[in-house]
Amino acid sequence: MKKLTLALSALAAVFGAASAKAEVSVSGSGSVGYTAPAGTDADGFVTVGQFVSFGLSTTTASGMTISGGMGLSNTPTVNNGQAVSGGKTLTFASGGASLTIGDVEAADTPGSVGGLVGDEIDDEGGFDSDVATGFADDDGLGFKFSTAVGASSLTLTYVGNDDFDNSGALQSDAAGDNSVVSVGVSVPMGAYTVNVGMASVDGTTESSAGASVSAALGGGTLTVGYSQQTLDESEKDTAAVYSFASATATVRSQETAAGEGDLSADGDTTVYGATYSMALDADTAFAVGYQSAKDADNDSTTQFDATLSRALGGGASVFLEMRSLSGDAATDGTAVALGSRVSF
Amino acid sequence: MLKSLISLVLVLFVTSCSQGIMGGNIEKNLEATDKIYGRCDNPYRSMTNVEKEICRGKVAAAGPDGKIDDPISLNDIFDRFNNPNKNIVYGGLSVNQYLWQGSLFVLENYPLQTVDSQGGFISTDWIISKDDPSRRCQIKINVISQDLISTGVKTKLICQEKDNDQWYPDNTILVEEEKKITLTILEKAQELSNLADLS
Predict the structure, then answer these.
(1) Are residues B25 and B54 in the same domain?
(2) A48-58 pLDDT, tens digit each
(3) Are B16 and A95 within 8 A, CB to CB?
(4) By residue range, what is the domain housing residue B119?
(5) I want to staple A331 with a disulfide (CB 3.0 to 4.6 A). Which of A20, A128, A195, A219 is the partner?
(6) Does B12 fall in a domain?
(7) Shortest distance, CA A150 to any CA of chain B (angstroms)
(8) Which of A118, A184, A283 sits opposite B63 (nearest CB)?
(9) Cα B87 to Cα B116: distance, rounded to the nearest angstrom
(10) How far apart are the C-alpha atoms of A156 and A147, rounded to whole Å?
(11) What are the average pLDDT values for consecutive 10-residue runs of chain B, which has 199 residues?
């Protein structure tokens, strides 16, 4: 109790006597595109989406910024997929640190690099890999703390209950309510930047660790990473069934068989990857990514991504993206998407 | 374990009010990691899915230089297509605005070929008189000062004459005409400056 009182007194001193500046902002984006998905005889389709975000922020007299927000969306990957989202976090930020409380997401695939394409291909490209990656559930009610340690960055995420988002008990004893912890550190070391992370789920055998190294090379940035994820087969089964039962809108992507996810044995998934991004000129960005993954079932895939984006001025841009997937996959091949994004 | 974690985070947060541990600045560090992950996919930032999508739109619109340019104007494109010799540059004004506006006022009855507010340079297209179609002239004005001074603008007249369908410089020196144009610009600039002072 005394520790809690001291903590509250310290927080009151940090907040200061009164708010100095409050702000409500609105921003948005839209996109339209055409996707030619992978798979033989797959039909190409047009996608349109829009997103609006209402940002709320205020600055206290001591200079701390408190912010939140909500959003409206019509995602391009779901037909008639309008939704209201957000309002589930509040972020307190100062010059040296930020603390987000509410619905936070743990970094469960540290060191995993290589995926670059947008949702038009990532969700709608028609791919169905047999390789299992990532924890069954990595987000929920908790907090995320980031601080600067000199030139390094440290992020600690604690998900106290992965079955709730903004209202629930932390460290619940109810069956299926797990907690997730992840830590990430970014350290600049001369010409390189090293990122190291680890994560684990309390109540299951899921854990992960990984690292990536980035360096400026030939006018662009090269990042190479390695990730090892220990996954729980029974947790993956649960996730696959849940996504089927909760679907209420038309989903274009193919689903795996209900009841059994992509994993049939507990064990490690290893992911090797690399990305290279560069600017072709002041308005054109180009990036390529490579990723090789293998899970405990000995299923393995190789993925190659390429993206090209050009700014047109006035908030508009055009994009051309491609993904090629090969290996153990119910649907592999190449998907291409091109279209335009607009920022408002 | 949870209580210890919360206590540790609160202590670190309170001690990081103005700057992080060892003098770190979180926003500066985030900008450095943005260059590796991209701003929208930076795991050290907190964003909702909607904010990430909007972020992607903004980053794509800004391009690698991080600036959102003025929109492309179809009028400009068609104008350049129809007038390939036309060279119009629109930019921020970096010379004295009254001298600039005075120059535009003096040349308002002539077609303009180059208008460069950054460099302070205006040139008309070739001016041909119906009475003497074998002769043409061009007016070039260079505003060289950010202050309203008599030496802040220079005028040059260039004339050519036609011979066998070819245009050649006629080497005419038109000092008096150039002086008259310069004086008119200065008078107009002074008038505009006086009006601005009154308002």
Answers:
(1) yes
(2) 999 999 988 88
(3) yes
(4) 74-198
(5) A128
(6) no
(7) 4
(8) A283
(9) 9
(10) 9
(11) 69 63 77 82 84 88 74 61 56 76 90 85 89 89 88 91 86 88 92 77
